[in-house]
Design goal:
There is one protein chain. By secondary structure, this protein is α/β, with parallel strands linked by helices. It folds into 2 domains: 11-197 and 373-419, D-Maltodextrin-Binding Protein, domain 2; 200-371 and 447-489, Periplasmic binding protein-like II (D-Maltodextrin-Binding Protein, domain 2), CATH 3.40.190.10. It has helices spanning 16-20, 31-35, 91-107, 120-129, 145-150, 172-178, 194-197, 206-211, 217-222, 228-238, 262-269, 290-302, 324-329, 343-346, 388-404, 406-419, 423-433, 440-444, 449-457, 466-489, and strands at residues 65-71, 109-115, 137-141, 200-205, 254-258, 275-277, 283-285, 310-312, 333-339, 353-356, 370-371, 377-380, 436-437. The strands form 4 sheets. Strands 8-5-9-4-10 form a 5-stranded mixed beta sheet. A 4-stranded mixed beta sheet has the order 2-1-3-12.
Length: 491
């Protein structure tokens, strides 16, 4: 009879704000210290209202097996390490180290991380093609997940009984988004901190905001008034030709800086996808309706490169400020749309900054939505793995324990204590993290449509999205159908 882990997590479903209320700086229980040293073979029961979790681990002994993890490396903006060899006093570093040692002891397993650059799927592909059993688990960029799954490299996670994917320590939005035809070949896991760091957020310069006397955006978020129109108005007021030469350069002030990908994320923030699953769970290219076209127009207006409103990365040719984050750090822009991982870099700024969710379409939109970068890490189990149940035990335990160790260390100590400058931003992170969305057009990259869409939306001739859908639609639908036929043929 297979050994099965039964894990019950309370902390994972608590908002980040609850975690913060227990941080040392606010006089509550030091949850980060308490939760990084539990004995997993004993019950740990503490008051959930205090922001501390409880879980149980039963009957799991992997016999000292060496778990081989292929991981992402060489990302300059993200924490990609799944294993740490020693403690150094840094909360996140030490939380990763302790989590892994706890897992190793509790279920009698040894963790072997195999860093593989920024394209770890190439290493796995070569191994599987050769029919070798070299790796148990792979973490790779999501944008590679669809093509790898379509070519039969991954095992179906829904067939692995030891994975408790319905539990709150798994991102249910990712599980539901990535499942196609009752098959789930990959999903995200907070075992890798890059998952959190890949969330696309909005930063704003508090000094510029205050100098302009603009309305409090935090209050607007709470009152459901943080909309595309509201953000546009602020960005427009922040656009100033400081030197008066009629040309916007690094000497002037811009409303927004970002990358081309921002176009897709601002559209997603308004509740729109390029590909959605239909009532039967099949992916389908959307048919743009009036609301979609209006949302598209709102994004085009916000990302207008003429007149200094929007500074796209690389636009200032010959300048050292060729990156959206560099312009924001120089205090050239009011807003910057980027991933959460850059918050660590922004702490070097002189001016204070805040963090916001992406704005809504209008005040009638009920939820905020925040996308993740196309490089958000997904995990998958290679089809050559001889014992996927054993691997399921491991990754389920690692993900569950991360909810009570890594996530608190990252949000309540690192982000709160070092990287953000105000408690309001922590509240915003709670909203952002709970509203993550994924677009299958990005994950599977059918016909390179999402890139074509971004290029169309940011071009001078791209006023109407319908022209692109009409031109590319049949091709994309054909490729989607081929993927579904391939999935149907995979046993």
């Amino acid at each position: 009879m297979k050994r099965i882990i039964y894990i019950f997590i309370i902390l994972a479903v608590l908002p980040i704000a609850a975690l913060i209320s227990c941080s040392p700086e606010t006089g509550g229980t030091d949850s980060a210290n308490n939760q990084t040293n539990p004995d997993l073979n004993d019950d740990i029961e503490e008051d959930a209202a205090e922001g501390v979790g409880a879980y149980k681990l039963f009957d799991a002994d992997l016999g000292g097996y060496e778990m081989r993890l292929v991981t992402i490396s060489n990302e300059d903006w993200a924490i990609t390490d799944l294993d740490i060899q020693e403690e150094n006093g840094e909360p996140v570093n030490d939380a990763i180290y302790r989590r892994n040692r706890q897992i190793e002891e509790a279920i009698n397993v040894a963790i072997k991380e195999i860093p593989s650059g920024i394209v770890p799927h190439d290493k796995l592909k070569k191994s599987v093609d050769a029919g070798l059993d070299e790796y148990d688990l792979m973490f790779a960029h999501a944008v590679s997940g669809g093509p790898m799954a379509s070519n039969g490299y991954y095992a179906n996670l829904l067939d692995i009984a030891s994975l408790n994917l319905d539990q709150p320590y798994w991102d249910q939005g990712a599980v539901k988004s990535f499942e196609l035809m009752e098959k789930l070949y990959f999903t995200t896991s907070d075992a890798c901190l890059m998952t959190s760091e890949s969330i696309w957020v909005l930063y704003f310069n508090k000094k510029i905001h205050q100098n302009l006397g603009l309305e409090d955006p935090y209050k607007m978020v709470r009152e459901n008034k943080w909309t595309m129109d509201a953000m546009y108005d602020m960005a427009k007021q922040a656009t100033i030709d400081i030197d008066g030469d009629g040309v916007f350069t690094e000497a002037d002030q811009w409303g927004l800086s970002s990358w081309g990908l921002a176009f897709l994320h601002f559209l997603g923030g308004q509740g729109n996808h390029l590909v959605k699953k239909d009532q039967n769970g099949y992916p389908a290219l959307v048919e743009p309706d009036e609301r979609f076209v209006n949302a598209y127009s709102k994004v085009r207006r916000l990302t207008d490169k003429a007149g200094g409103l929007y500074l796209e990365a690389g636009a200032l040719k010959g300048s050292e400020y060729d990156h959206a984050t560099k312009t924001f750090m120089k205090e050239m822009t009011l807003f910057c749309a980027e991933v959460l991982g850059w918050s660590r870099i922004f702490r070097e700024m002189t001016a204070d900054f805040g963090i916001l969710p992406h704005p809504k379409y209008d005040e009638n939109q009920t939820e905020y939505y925040n996308g993740t970068a196309h490089v958000v890490p997904i995990f998958a189990i290679p089809i050559t793995n001889p014992d996927p149940e054993r691997t399921g035990i491991f990754i389920d335990a690692l993900t569950a324990l991360s909810a009570t160790t890594i996530t608190p260390a990252y949000y309540t100590i690192s982000l709160e204590g070092k990287f953000t400058r105000d408690e309001d931003s922590i509240e915003m992170l709670d909203i952002i993290r709970s509203s993550r969305i994924y677009d299958l057009a990005v994950i599977y990259n059918w016909g390179n449509f999402y890139s074509l869409f971004i290029n169309h939306g940011t071009s001078a001739s791209g006023e109407n999205p319908m022209t692109l859908f009409e031109k590319q639609g049949e091709k994309i639908r054909t490729q989607i159908e081929k993927t579904m036929e391939t999935f149907a043929a995979i046993n």
